[in-house]
Specification:
The protein has a six-stranded mixed sheet with strand order 4-3-7-8-9-10, with helices on both faces. A two-stranded antiparallel ribbon has the order 1-2. A two-stranded antiparallel ribbon has the order 5-6. The protein has a single domain (2-192), classed as Rossmann fold. The chain is globular and about 50 Å long. By secondary structure, it is of the alpha/beta class. Helix 3 (32-48) packs across helix 4 (65-75). The chain has helices at residues 2-11, 23-27, 32-48, 65-75, 134-146, 164-168, and strands at 13-16, 19-21, 56-60, 79-82, 94-101, 106-113, 122-130, 149-159, 175-184, 189-192. It contains six helices and ten strands; from the N terminus they run αββααβαββββαβαββ. The longest helix has 17 residues, at 32-48. Helix content is 32%, strand content 34%. Residues 54-159 form the Phosphoribosyltransferase domain.
Amino acid sequence: MKELRDLIKSKAEYLGDGILKADGFINHQILPGFSTRMGKAFAEEFRAQGVAGATKIVTAEVSGIAPALVTAQAMDIPMVFARKRRPAFMNDPLFEASARSRTKGEDVTLYISSRYLEPSDRVIIVDDFLATASTLEALCAIVDKSGAKLMAIGCIIEKVFENGRERLDRFNVPVIALARVDLVDSGRSFTVL
């Protein structure tokens, strides 16, 4: 997606230690028109990969909600986000899995109610970044525990230097990244691929 690549080049900052700051346009400040175009781009990419019949988009709070919502809107299907804390009102049986948070430096447990993820669902997972794939693997585990079928995985930005894509190979589904970045200059800066 050219518009995304241009924004990464002009607005993203590499902070070191694998952290790419893109919060001005994807995960802190949200640009509605641009986000809507990303959702449409995801829908088109999934169609181009032969992904059909999806019934749910799944993501993790907080940063995955915006891209997952616009993708769900473009595909006209529900979106469910995994919570990072179990609210008191979540009294249905839950599916849960743990992920390592890169930005928080700690393990986080993700929860989805069995009410909103059923064995009949056909799921696409959408998130903001593909880095180490820890969050995506946890979401895949939740989908598996629910009995639903995983159809595809999509991320706005893939940090290829983190090798997360290889960790997702075992799921045998298309993995879509709208933009890819890699480190250059002995890891002090990045380039958009």
